[in-house]
Every structure is written in C-alpha cells, then in structure tokens.
C-alpha cells in the first residue's frame, strides 16, 4: 500500500495525498462533497493504476479526510488550487481527471486551468452547478444571509452542511450557462436512479462541452454512488479505454 504523504501549500494548508508513479497520462481522482481518497472508487482506480504501471494521484481536499483544515473554509477555488498544486509539485505533464459528484464540477474547473496538460475527463454522476439547481430557493435566501443550512445525509449519521461561503463561491463558478471550452475526450457515467444528481445533468454537460469526443453512459438501475462491483468494473473499463491505447504517452 502506497503511504499517504503531505503537501504543504504556501499558506500552510496541509494536503494529504497518495501517488504512484508510472507512465502517463496520470489518473487524478477527485472525490465528491465531504468525501475522501479512501472511498471504493478511488481505491479501485489506484489499484488498477499500480497493476498496469500507470501514474495515479489521490488526494483529500483541505478540511476532508486526512488533510488539515476546517471543512467550513472549503470552496471550489480553494480545492481547485490544491489539485493544481499537487499536479505541479509531482511534475505531472499530462492528466486524466476523474471526478465523482462534486469532483465532476472540480474536474471541469481544474481542467480549464490545466490547458494542454489535460488529456481527458471521466465524470461519475458529475454535479456541476449544484449550488444552483440542487438547493431550494428558500435555502438560497438563508445562505445569502450568511446562514449555514443542513440537509439529511443518507450516507452517514451527521447532517450535510452547506456553508454560505461555499455556496456563494459556487454561484460564481457556474458552468452550464454557456460553452465549456474543453476539447479533450470526455466520458460521463450516471445512474438513472440517482436521487442526488439528476441524470439529465450529464446530458446538459455533454451538450455544453466544446469537445466533439463526449460519450454519456446511463446505468438504468444505478444510484448516486455507483459503487457496486458492476459499477466499479464499468468505471475501470472506461478508464482503461481512455488511457491504455496511449499508454506510452508522456507522463
């Protein structure tokens, strides 16, 4: 098992990550909201990368998992900075970003910043713009007034918070309102029984991406997490199809 390491950001943030070197492009797994690199999908991708000699990076955003910091301070821009800083620090020259749920929003924002380093995107129930479509108008009013809102969490005992700073920053980073200027291959996987992110969000995203090489796979009985053995097998096949033909490309 590759050990967890710490990357220190210029402002003192300590970001936990795991990295296995190899041929490229490197796989970079971006977890969802309040999730971390210990999840089943991230672990499966990392183990596949190790088995096939492909470079792979897992990370915990600040305030999540093994990283330092307070989750209440988290924002898309802050977490994007951490992703980009690790890619730079590890001298990754080409990356395929794999984003789960909120990580699917972050993969787009980080991808736009990576330029030619971006070699592909794989979204798992991607949730761009969820601060817009995923929050009732009444709650938006509370957030705009500086209040934190809490929702029932089907995945754990504690309610899920949305902090006003995260919400406001999300509203400043909406992407589905216009063209998303990315031209790399994109694969989107989405369960049609997803109670958290409507599957038509993936269809909207496919339409807004400038790339002509975009494919959406709908899993009729799939839920939001897509973490069953069959779902993970589909994810790994999708990853393999994107990277293995170019396995000798620049890392």
Automatic annotation (TrEMBL):
The record's Gene3D superfamilies line, in alphabetical order, gives: alpha/beta hydrolase
Spell out the molecular function terms from Gene Ontology: mycophenolic acid acyl-glucuronide esterase activity; palmitoyl-(protein) hydrolase activity
Reaction catalyzed: mycophenolic acid O-acyl-beta-D-glucuronide + H2O = mycophenolate + D-glucuronate + H(+); S-hexadecanoyl-L-cysteinyl-[protein] + H2O = L-cysteinyl-[protein] + hexadecanoate + H(+)
Hydrolase among keywords: yes
Asked if the record carries the keyword Isomerase, the reply is no
E.C. no: 3.1.1.93, 3.1.2.22
Q: List, alphabetically, the InterPro entries matched.
A: AB_hydrolase_1, AB_hydrolase_fold, ABHD10_acyl-thioesterase
Q: Which residues form the AB hydrolase-1 domain?
A: 27-226
Entry keywords, A to Z: Hydrolase, Transit peptide
What function is annotated for this protein? Acts as an acyl-protein thioesterase that hydrolyzes fatty acids from acylated residues in proteins. Regulates the mitochondrial S-depalmitoylation of the nucleophilic active site residue of peroxiredoxin-5/PRDX5, a key antioxidant protein, therefore modulating mitochondrial antioxidant ability. Also catalyzes the deglucuronidation of mycophenolic acid acyl-glucuronide, an active metabolite of the immunosuppressant drug mycophenolate.
What name goes with this protein?
Answer: Palmitoyl-protein thioesterase ABHD10, mitochondrial
């Amino acid at each position: 098992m590759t050990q967890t390491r710490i990357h220190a950001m210029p402002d003192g943030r300590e970001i936990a990550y795991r990295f296995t070197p190899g041929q490229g492009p490197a796989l970079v797994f971006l977890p969802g909201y309040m999730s971390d690199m210990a999840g089943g999908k991230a672990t499966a991708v990392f183990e596949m990368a190790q088995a096939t000699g492909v470079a792979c990076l897992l990370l915990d955003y600040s305030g999540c998992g093994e990283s330092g910091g307070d989750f209440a301070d988290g924002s898309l821009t802050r977490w994007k900075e951490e992703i980009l800083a690790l890619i730079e620090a590890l001298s990754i020259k080409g990356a395929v970003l794999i984003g789960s749920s909120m990580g699917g929003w972050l993969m787009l924002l980080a991808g736009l910043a990576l330029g030619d380093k971006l070699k592909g995107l794989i979204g798992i129930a991607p949730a761009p713009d969820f601060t817009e479509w995923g929050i009732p108008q009444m709650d938006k009013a509370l957030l705009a007034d500086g209040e934190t809102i809490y929702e029932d969490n089907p995945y754990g005992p504690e309610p899920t918070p949305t902090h006003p700073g995260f919400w406001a920053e999300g509203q400043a980073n909406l992407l589905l309102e216009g063209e998303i200027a990315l031209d790399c291959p994109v694969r989107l996987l989405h369960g049609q029984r997803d109670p958290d992110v409507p599957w038509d969000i993936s269809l909207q995203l496919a339409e807004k991406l400038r790339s002509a090489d975009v494919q959406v796979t709908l899993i009729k009985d799939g839920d939001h997490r897509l973490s069953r053995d069959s779902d993970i097998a589909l994810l790994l096949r999708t990853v393999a199809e994107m990277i293995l033909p170019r396995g000798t490309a620049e890392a």
